[in-house]
C-alpha cells in the first residue's frame, strides 16, 4: 500500500510566521485577507509579538487584542424583523387578517381588515421593534349616488402608528380590464376619493353615512375599485 505523503510541516517543526497569523485569522473567524496583505503582516511581524501589533495597525485587532468585527446591516435587519415577527405572532413580515369588531353606524359588516408589518429600520411612527398595524373598516359612504363615480362606499382607516397612509387599489372595467393606479396618499382626519382628490363635507353637516373619528383617514370608492394593500408612507 502506498502512503500519501503529508503536505503539512514536518513533525516538531515550528510553523512560519505567516502560517501562525493565517491560523489565528481562521480561528477567530476574521474576514478573508489577501495573501499579499498577510505576507506584509508576517514581514513586519518579525520584531513584534506574533504580528499582533501589525494586526492592530490594520484594524483587525483592538487595543485589547480582540477581533474587530463590523455589524452587517443586512444581517441586523433580518434578525430584527425575525424578532418582531415572533413577538407579534406573524408568519410573514407582511400579513393580513380579519378581525371581528363592534358594528358602527354606516359599517357594511362587523369585520375589520388588519394589515400588519415588521420592518427594519422602523418606518416613521412604528413601534420601536418595527411593528405597524393598520385597521380598515368597510362602510357606506355618501348618502346618495349623485356624485358617482366618487362612490357610495368608504374605506375607514385607523392606526396607532402611521402619520401617512399609502392606499394601493386595483381598478376593473370589465372582464379583461384591470389597472393598478398609484397609491392614494391620505393623512389622518382627511377624506379623499379613490382617484386621490381631496373631498370635503358640505357646510350643512356630514354628507356621509358615518361621522369621521379622530385621526381616521377615509377613501371614498365605487365598485370598480378593490383594496390591495395599505402601508405607512415613509
Task: Explain what the structure shows.
With 234 residues, the protein is of the alpha+beta class. 18% of the residues lie in helices and 29% in strands. The protein contains 4 helices and 10 strands. The chain has helices at 17-27, 35-44, 52-57, 73-88; strands at 94-100, 107-118, 131-140, 153-159, 165-174, 177-179, 184-186, 191-193, 217-221, 225-232. It has a 6-stranded mixed β-sheet with strand order 1-2-3-4-9-8. It is elongated. It starts with 16 loop residues before the first helix and ends with a strand. Mean pLDDT is 78; it is low at 30-48.
Main attributes?
single chain; 234 residues; alpha+beta; 4-stranded antiparallel sheet; 4 helices; 10 strands
Question: Which term fits the overall shape?
Answer: elongated
Distance between the termini: 71 Å
The helix fraction, in percent, is 10-25%
Low-confidence stretches: 30-48
Taken as a percent bin, the fraction of beta residues is 25-35%
Mean pLDDT: 78
Largest sheet: 6 strands, mixed
Strand order of the largest sheet: 1-2-3-4-9-8
Class of secondary structure makeup: alpha+beta
Q: How would the blueprint of this fold be written?
A:
Elements (H helix, E strand, L loop, with lengths): L16 H11 L7 H10 L7 H6 L15 H16 L5 E7 L6 E12 L12 E10 L12 E7 L5 E10 L2 E3 L4 E3 L4 E3 L23 E5 L3 E8 L2
Parallel strand pairs: 8-9
Antiparallel strand pairs: 1-2, 2-3, 3-4, 4-9, 5-6, 5-7, 5-10
Amino acid at each position: 500500500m502506498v502512503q500519501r505523503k503529508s503536505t503539512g510541516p514536518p513533525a516538531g517543526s515550528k510553523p512560519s510566521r505567516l502560517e501562525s497569523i493565517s491560523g489565528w485569522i481562521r480561528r477567530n473567524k476574521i474576514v478573508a485577507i489577501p495573501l499579499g496583505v498577510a505576507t506584509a503582516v508576517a514581514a513586519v511581524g518579525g520584531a513584534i509579538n506574533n504580528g499582533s501589533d501589525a494586526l492592530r495597525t490594520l484594524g483587525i485587532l483592538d487595543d485589547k487584542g480582540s477581533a474587530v468585527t463590523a455589524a452587517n446591516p443586512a444581517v441586523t435587519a433580518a434578525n430584527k424583523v425575525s424578532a418582531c415577527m415572533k413577538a407579534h405572532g406573524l408568519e410573514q413580515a407582511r400579513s393580513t387578517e380579519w378581525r371581528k369588531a363592534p358594528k358602527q353606524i354606516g359599517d357594511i359588516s362587523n369585520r375589520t381588515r388588519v394589515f400588519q408589518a415588521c420592518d427594519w429600520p422602523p418606518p416613521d411612527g412604528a413601534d420601536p421593534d418595527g411593528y405597524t398595524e393598520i385597521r380598515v373598516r368597510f362602510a357606506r359612504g355618501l348618502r346618495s349616488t349623485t356624485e358617482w363615480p366618487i362612490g357610495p362606499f368608504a374605506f375607514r382607516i385607523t392606526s396607532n402608528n402611521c402619520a401617512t397612509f399609502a392606499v394601493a387599489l386595483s381598478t376593473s372595467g370589465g372582464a379583461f380590464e384591470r389597472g393598478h393606479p398609484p397609491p392614494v396618499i391620505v393623512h389622518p382626519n382627511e377624506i379623499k376619493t379613490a382617484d386621490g382628490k381631496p373631498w370635503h363635507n358640505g357646510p350643512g353637516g356630514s354628507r356621509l353615512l358615518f361621522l369621521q373619528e379622530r385621526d381616521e383617514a377615509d377613501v371614498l370608492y365605487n365598485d370598480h375599485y378593490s383594496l390591495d394593500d395599505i402601508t405607512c408612507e415613509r
